[in-house]
């Protein structure tokens, strides 16, 4: 379902432009000039309304964070919410995941978060899943050699599919859990809006960490 078109979207995006990495910054983007401090860089693909990104910036002030979302009518909520806190270590980008290897500097990202991405359940749409092996291969372009991907989903078929895809793409998997909130790995977990809603309804959350070999 497409998000409802927001009113005055262009004016609202302009008002929070200071928090946004714009298309004008994409060519020759320099991460060190975007943030006040030179810190490890984490990114999130599909940040939605920004709850995870804002919490991450607050809980981990020692890390920089870029929250990425391709839909303007979705990311505007995250931007306006973030403007109330104005964390120096948090910025947003309106971009498609497929374009990131051409935008982000080579080997610049420490952690990539993929949280509750669209499962694209029909087999013919498998290539559109953010954990399809061709996507995973391209993430290697901007991930540091010791970088990692943290993947969460409530969708068990997608999770099982993704485990195979990560292995196909040559990643090493660790800390796999099919019930994150009742596992030893939950202590440092930051929840997304989606995660809270569905865990409150009794759904279990799957999570893994994938390292480059």
Topology:
Blueprint: H1 9-15, E1 20-21, H2 31-34, E2 41-45, H3 51-59, E3 64-69, H4 72-82, E4 90-94, H5 100-103, E5 109-115, H6 133-142, E6 143-153, H7 156-168, E7 171-177, H8 193-200, E8 206-212
Q: From N to C, what is the helix and strand string?
A: HEHEHEHEHEHEHEHE
The radius of gyration is 17 Å
Estimated structural class: alpha/beta
**Relative helix content:** 25-40%
Going by CATH, the architecture would be 3-Layer(aba) Sandwich
List the defining traits of the structure above:
213 residues; alpha/beta; Rossmann fold; eight-stranded mixed β-sheet; globular
How would you explain this protein's 3D organization?
By secondary structure, this protein is of the alpha/beta class. The protein has one domain (44-212): 3-Layer(aba) Sandwich (Rossmann fold), CATH 3.40.50. 31% of the residues lie in helices and 23% in strands. It contains eight helices and eight strands; from the N terminus they run H-E-H-E-H-E-H-E-H-E-H-E-H-E-H-E. The chain has an eight-stranded mixed beta sheet. It is globular and about 40 Å long.
């Amino acid at each position: 379902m497409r998000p409802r078109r927001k009113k005055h979207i262009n004016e609202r995006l302009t008002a929070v432009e200071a928090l946004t990495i714009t298309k004008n910054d994409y060519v020759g983007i320099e991460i060190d000039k975007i943030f006040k401090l030179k810190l490890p860089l984490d990114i999130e693909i599909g940040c939605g309304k920004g709850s995870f990104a804002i919490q991450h910036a607050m809980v981990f002030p020692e890390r920089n964070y870029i929250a990425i979302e391709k839909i303007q009518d979705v990311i505007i909520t995250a931007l306006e919410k973030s403007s109330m806190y104005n964390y120096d270590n948090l910025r947003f980008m309106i971009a498609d995941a497929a374009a990131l290897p051409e935008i982000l500097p080579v080997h610049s990202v420490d952690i990539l978060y993929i949280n509750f991405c669209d499962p694209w359940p029909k087999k013919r749409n498998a290539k559109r899943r953010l954990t399809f092996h061709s996507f995973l291969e391209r993430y290697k372009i901007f991930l540091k050699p010791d970088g990692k991907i943290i993947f969460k989903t409530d969708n068990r078929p997608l999770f099982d599919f993704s485990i195979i895809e990560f292995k196909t793409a040559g990643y090493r998997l660790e800390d796999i859990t099919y019930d994150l909130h009742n596992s030893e790995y939950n202590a440092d977990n930051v929840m997304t809006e989606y995660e809270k809603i569905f865990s409150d309804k009794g759904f279990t959350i799957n999570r893994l960490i994938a390292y480059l070999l």
